[in-house]
Request: fold
Amino acid sequence: MENGRIYKVLVVDPSSIVSAGVRMLLNDLPDFRALDTATEGDAAACFARIATLGPDLVLIDPALFPVLRRTPIRSSFPALQELPIVALCHAPADEELLQEFDAVINLYDTPSRIHHKLKQALETSRSTSQSEGYELTDREREILVAVARGMTNREIADRYYISIHTVISHRKNITRKTGIKTIAGLTVYALLNNMISEADLSA
Reply:
């Protein structure tokens, strides 16, 4: 907690039971407080009120977003552009969709694990907004090279002893900084910036 700061969390979930339970859990954490809003299940209504509600972080059920949508979440809802967004999963979710979130919380996570993930999402968002030069970190360069070599998120996580969600977070930051969304594009970027050679790709 920074100087006793309390972070306000907006919970957006279609289940009133889940959202009530999550709000209670958040209010028991030392540096988070759930915002009370009567429109929790209505994502569009919640997002429209973000300016007046003033959350520091938004916790969203990814099921609210159609899997076959073509527009990224933050592009669809500009109010989320500057905020950390965390997926609240209580059903299987599309992995590509989850890559757009700063963290992923599972309904079975312990309170301490949830607290850690929320803090991590805030840190990830803060470090991304501060790195306006879009310089990749050493770890991001390692992840980019691994992606260019065709490694899966699981293989990358195992290789660097990090969680899959941390890999996804790094990949999201790489995409933000480079502006490149495809694996082929990232491979070309890695080649042009001498991170890998063509021999590495054929190995």
